[in-house]
Design brief:
This protein has 3 domains: 154 residues, Rossmann fold, CATH 3.40.50.720; 155 residues, Dihydrodipicolinate Reductase, domain 2 (2-Layer Sandwich); 84 residues, 2-Layer Sandwich (Alpha-Beta Plaits). Helix content is 36%, strand content 25%. The strands form 2 sheets. Strands 7, 8, 9, 10, 11, 12, 13, 14, 15, 16, 17 and 18 form a 12-stranded mixed beta sheet that branches. Helix 1 packs across helix 12, helix 4 runs parallel beside helix 5 and helix 7 crosses helix 8. The longest helix has 21 residues. It is elongated. The model has no long low-confidence stretch (mean pLDDT 93).
């Protein structure tokens, strides 16, 4: 039986999941592949701790270069994370004619262009299914399953930590800080959850998705992002009154030769399928010009789901390797750059609907002052809720708008926040359209 030799860099959570699958599903994998995947060497700084899987100690090493330089290893799996060291090892592996599998979203989002060019130069494959949404096969779907379609839009929940926090806040009325503390205790949030809650994690994944959807690498740094740390139960309550829930959304849309690419909390209509994605689950809602809307849903992180995606890439590369072919599908599924030039739309030019919550003094004429400034800046009000007096004298005035340009909204709020009748900085959330509107 043919053999494909694999070297693993990084024996952490995902690496353990990968090894567990290779052991437990060994026969299934061989039946599907018609070959044996041999885990020849594992490199990690810690080769002492028990991972709960049985490994021959002789395959363990603390020297990653043993894998990179081993001429018998066909595929290198990079699961060490970060960018600098991972980039160095991956490039060296490709220079030595080895195929690469990685789960490293930051590496692909920030250095994908260079990695893809290196893979082409050395005629090797690079696969990264596990870099986006754990066990959800969205990369394969975009590269192959939906390859006949022009992708029109993507709306996605790509960070399980943020989705877990917003779910608990919505269902139990807890504050952000209260739920974050619970999430850390239960293991849904890291000790330092910054990249999850500030939108960076989702933005890395969105950069990969839009690069696949539109056939050219996009710079992660150019994607607009906001986090969920300023979301409060009050705004979640108002969202419900208007028929929405709050989600951290990653959004990409093509329009007029530009791509909108943004990550931020957004009001999602309760009748939209993404509104029912709860807890730590992820979902990607993709609209193709011929396939129409499709939904990819599942666990977006964790040892087993992400390990599953890594092994699926291993099988894909192994099939090619056994047949002596490479680069059957290019990394971004385009054998040449699309003729259509597309650039990212500046955030201040984005047009959408908005939610505002003003804290205003309870006196006559306040609403007319606020609405007057909005009207002068081409912003039309769709709905208003005004609550009764608070003990400190201010009341919340809550509005939904019709479509408006971000630049006009920012100008308006700057003027409104200077009014002597407005006591706190205005809260803003963007709103996804309701079905049929």
């Amino acid at each position: 039986m043919p053999r494909v030799n694999v070297g693993l860099l990084g024996f952490g959570t995902v690496g353990t999941g990968m090894v567990e699958i290779l052991i437990n599903n060994r026969q299934l994998i061989e039946d599907r592949l018609g070959a044996e995947i041999v885990l020849k060497k594992i490199a990690d700084l810690d080769i002492v701790s028990d991972r709960g899987v049985k490994i021959d100690p002789t395959v363990l090493t603390t020297d990653a270069m043993e894998i990179v330089n081993d001429p018998e290893i066909d595929v290198v799996v990079e699961l060490i994370g970060g960018c600098d060291q991972a980039m160095e090892y991956v490039v060296m592996a490709m220079e030595r004619g080895k195929h690469v599998v990685t789960a490293n979203k930051a590496l692909i989002a920030e250095h994908g262009k260079q990695l893809f060019e290196t893979a082409e130069q050395y005629n090797v494959d690079i696969a990264f299914e596990a870099s986006v949404a754990g066990g959800i096969p969205i990369i394969g779907a975009l590269r192959e399953g939906l390859s006949a379609n022009q992708i029109k839009a993507v709306s996605a929940i790509l960070n399980g930590t943020s989705n877990y926090i917003l779910t608990r806040m919505t269902e139990e009325g807890l504050s952000f800080d209260e739920v974050l503390s619970i999430a850390k205790r239960l293991g849904y949030a890291e000790a330092d959850p910054t990249l999850d809650i500030d939108g960076s994690d989702a933005a890395h994944k969105l950069a990969i998705i839009i690069s696949l959807a539109f056939g050219r690498p996009f710079n992660y740094e150019d994607i607009y992002r906001e986090g969920i740390d300023n979301v409060c139960p009050e705004d979640i309550g108002f969202a419900g009154e208007f028929g929405y829930c709050l989600k951290l959304l990653a959004i990409a849309r093509e329009a007029d030769g530009h791509i909108e690419a943004r990550v931020h909390p957004a009001f999602v209509p309760l009748d939209h399928i993404l509104a029912n994605v709860k807890e730590a689950y992820n979902a990607i809602y993709v609209e193709g010009d011929f396939a129409g809307p499709t939904l990819f849903y599942g666990l977006g992180a964790g040892r087993r789901p992400t390990g599953s995606a890594v092994v699926s890439d291993l099988l894909d590369i192994a099939r090619n390797h056994i047949k002596g072919i490479t680069r059957r599908v290019s990394p971004l599924s385009f054998s040449r750059s699309p003729a259509k030039e597309l650039s990212l739309k500046p955030m201040n030019q984005v047009i959408t609907e908005y939610y505002f919550r003003f804290s205003a003094v309870d006196r006559p004429g306040v609403l007319s002052k606020i609405s007057g400034i909005l009207g002068q800046n081409n912003i039309s009000i769709a709905s208003v809720i005004q609550k009764g007096r608070r003990t400190h004298g201010s009341v919340p005035v809550v509005m939904l708008t019709h479509e408006a340009k971000e630049n006009d909204v920012r100008k308006s709020l700057e003027l409104i926040d200077r009014l002597d009748v407005v006591t706190e900085k205005t809260v803003l959330f963007r709103v996804e359209k309701k079905t049929g509107t």
